[in-house]
């Protein structure tokens, strides 16, 4: 199986780029960030703070996560409920950052992610795909952009969905999440030694897609 890993900070466009690349190559796209968001949302549904280690990990034995592809679109199901829209709300982003720092959560999701890569040609995006989840991936990329550009992209995305957000709040959230993700003890965000760096600050979506497609020889 061919595995492609795309890592990078929040709001770098990993999901949009990975989806498009997967479609062109006929690969399965695995949005690992969605899985962590779902774990965070599960805690919030139970009125548990997402930095409450015992509270979050205590829910794991009763948690069932599924990735389903419906009409070619990945949907995330949490205990049988489609939470694909809920996990995209701003509060789910910081929740994901908090729960992803917990080794038990990462271990809980590890097998699910690796099993998909063993049996399918996949493109997987996240924070530690090339360093931890799929260290033997044939292609690795680190996609980034400046915090200001990432905040602007997220602001436009949420506004288009009719969600009222504040740009400055999004920018501070992204800066805080960058710090959290890169400084956590377990599987911190970092570029794999053999990953190609792509800074999309001055690229549109199509240019970002082409920057990755051009490096893949199948």
Question: What can you see in these coordinates?
Answer:
It is a single chain. The protein has 218 residues and is α/β, with parallel strands linked by helices. It has one domain (3-213): Rossmann fold (3-Layer(aba) Sandwich). It is 48% helix and 17% strand. It is built from 9 helices and 8 strands. The protein has helices at 14-25, 32-45, 53-59, 90-99, 103-119, 129-133, 147-160, 167-183, 205-213, and strands at 3-7, 28-31, 65-70, 73-78, 81-82, 122-126, 139-144, 196-199. The strands form 2 sheets. The protein has a 5-stranded parallel beta sheet, with helices on both faces. Strands 3-4-5 form a 3-stranded antiparallel beta sheet, covered by helices on one side. Strand 4 and strand 5 (81-82) form a beta hairpin. The radius of gyration is 16 Å and the shape is globular. It starts with a strand and ends in a 5-residue tail after the last helix. The mean pLDDT is 93.
The CATH level-2 architecture is identified as 3-Layer(aba) Sandwich
Average pLDDT: 93
User: What is the helical fraction, as a range of percent?
Assistant: 40-55%
Beta-strand segment tally: 8
> So, the CATH homologous superfamily?
P-loop containing nucleotide triphosphate hydrolases
Cα radius of gyration in angstroms: 16 Å
Number of domains: 1
Any idea of the CATH topology? Answer: Rossmann fold
Poorly predicted parts: none
Coarse morphology: globular
């Amino acid at each position: 199986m061919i595995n492609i890993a795309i890592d990078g900070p929040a709001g770098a466009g990993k999901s949009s780029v990975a989806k498009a690349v997967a479609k062109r190559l006929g690969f399965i796209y695995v949005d690992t960030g969605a899985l962590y968001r779902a774990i965070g949302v599960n805690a919030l549904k139970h009125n548990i703070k997402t930095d409450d280690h015992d509270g979050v990990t205590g829910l794991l034995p009763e948690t069932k996560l599924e990735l389903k592809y419906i009409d070619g679109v990945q949907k995330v199901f949490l205990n049988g409920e489609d939470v694909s829209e809920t996990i995209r709300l701003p509060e789910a982003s910081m929740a994901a950052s908090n729960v992803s720092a917990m080794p038990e959560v990462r271990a809980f999701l590890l097998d699910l992610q690796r099993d998909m890569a063993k049996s399918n040609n996949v493109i997987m995006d996240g924070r530690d795909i090339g360093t931890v989840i799929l260290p033997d991936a044939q292609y690795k990329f680190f996609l980034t952009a400046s915090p200001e550009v990432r905040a602007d992209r997220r602001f436009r995305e949420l506004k288009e969905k009719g969600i009222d957000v504040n740009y400055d709040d999004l920018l501070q959230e992204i800066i805080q999440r960058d710090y959290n993700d890169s400084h956590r003890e377990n599987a911190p965000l970092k570029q794999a030694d053999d990953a190609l760096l792509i800074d999309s600050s001055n690229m549109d979506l199509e240019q970002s897609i082409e920057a990755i497609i051009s490096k893949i020889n199948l």
